[in-house]
Give the backbone structure.
Amino acid sequence: MKITSINPFTQKVLESFDEYADEQLEVILKKATSAYDNWRHANPETRKNYMCKVAEILRMNKEKYARTITQEMGKPIKEARAEIEKCAWVSEHYAHEAEMLLKREAVATDADLSYIVYDPIGTVMGIMPWNFPFWQVFRFAVPAIMAGNTIVIKHAPNVTRCALHIEDIFSEADPEQDGIMQALIIQEKDAAKIIRDPRIKAISFTGSNETGAKVATEAAGNIKKSILELGGNNPFIVLEDADIDKAVDTGITARMQNNGQSCIAAKRFILTEPVADKFMERYVAKMQELKIGDPMEEDTQIGPLATEEQVKKLKAQVDKSVKMGAKVVYDGGAVDNFYKPTLLSNVKPGMPVFDEEVFGPVASVITVKDFDEAVEVANQSKYGLGVSIFTEHTHHAEELVYYFDEGSVFFNDMVKSDPRLPFGGTKSSGYGRELGKHGIHEFVNVKTIYLKEGKYHHKPQKEEHVAKSMGG
Ligand code: NAD
C-alpha cells in the first residue's frame, strides 16, 4: 500500500511512498538496537560533537527542509524556516547542556557512598503529528538521543518526506553512528505491533487525544512508559490594566501562526469588560491586514489548512457554535482549502469553539467581569497546556498563578516552547514533559547506587562517574 503526501495549496500529489514490509521493519529495529549498543557508550564529547553537527546540517539545508515543510503541510515559508532554526537551537542547547543535566547526583544516606545516575533505556518510538513536522520530532528526540537512546519515528502520513529528511540529517551527522534516528513508513494500524515489539522501550506521542489514548493503552498493556503531548484550548486573558496594543499584536500571532494549527495557540480570548470592545475592534483591524495566499510566497501570513478534513471539521465547529448563539464579529469562513481568519464573540461553555480544540485561525471571545471570573472561565476546560495573561501589574497576578490548572503560565507573552524550559500539559492535554531538565529525564533509567562497607579496589572519582552516567 502507498502512503501519499498532497500539497494542500495546489491539491496535487507530491509523492507516494511504499509502505515498509515486515522484513524492512525487522532490519530497522535490529539497526536501532545495535546503534544503541554502541551509542550508549559514547562519551559526552562524542555526543556533543554529533549534536552540533546535526545543528550545522539543519542550518546548511534550511531552505530545502523549509520548502518540504511548506509543500507538505502548507505553513508559510517564513515560519517553516523559523521551525528549522528552532530545531538547530534545541540541538545546540542539549549538545552543550546534556552533560550537566545528566551528571550523577550524590545523596547522603547510611551508605559510604550513594548517588543517582541517569542511564539510557534503549530505543524510543516517536509517533508524531504533521503540524510542526520537524520541531515535534526534534524536541523529544534530541534530549532522548543525548541521554544515549536511539529513536524510530512513525510520522504523520502527509509529512513523510519531512520524516525521511530527518532520518538523513542524523545519518549524515556521523555515518558511523547510523541507526540513531530512523523513520518507519507504516500505516497507522501497524503502529501497535511496533509499540509491542520488545526492542521498543518507551513511546513519545504527540497528537490528538483520541489517538493518544489508544497509543498509551497499547504501551501500558506492554508495560512501557509513554508520554503524551495532546490537544489544547489555551486561554488568553486580557485584564483591564493591560497594554492593549501589545495584547492585540501578540494575540494575532498566538492564534494565527501556523495557520492556526498549533496545540498551544491562544484559542479562548477571555477579555475583561472594560477592554473587550477596544480589543476586538483592534483585533479585527489586524486580522484584515493578514496576507492570505500561496504559502511559498514570502509575504504570505495565512496559508491553507493542512488537509480537507481540517477545513470540514473547523467549519462544522464554527457553524454549530453560531447556531448555539456565538456572534460572528469578523467572518472569514471556509474558501476552498483555506479557512480565513474569523472572530466570534459571545462564546459560552457547551459550544464546540469553547469545549473543543479549534485547529485553525478562529478566535473566540468570552467577556468577563474581572480576574476571578477570568480564572474560573480559563479553568473550565478539559485541556491544560498553558495560559497567557496580559496585565501591567504582574506582581498582583503572579500571586494567583496557582489557581490555573495549566502546564505553563505566561505573562504579557504568548505561550511558547523554549528548549531551556519544560513543556507539557495537565488534564486531557497529556502527561510527561519535553524540553528543559525534565525533558532529558523522561527516557532514562534513574539508577540508584548504594555502596556500603566494601573494600573497593578503586573508589571512582567524580569525573569518571559523570562520564559513566552518560555512557551507561
Ligand atoms: P493524530 O492523533 O491524528 O495523529 C498523530 C500521529 O498518530 C500521526 O503520526 C498519526 O499517523 C498517528 N496515528 C493515527 N492513528 C493511530 C493509531 N491508531 N495508532 C498509532 N498511531 C496513530 O493528530 P494530528 O492530526 O496529526 O495532530 C494534531 C493534534 O496534535 C492536535 O490535537 C494538536 O493539538 C496535537 N498536538 C499537540 C502538541 C503538544 O505538544 N501538546 C503539539 C502538536 C500537536
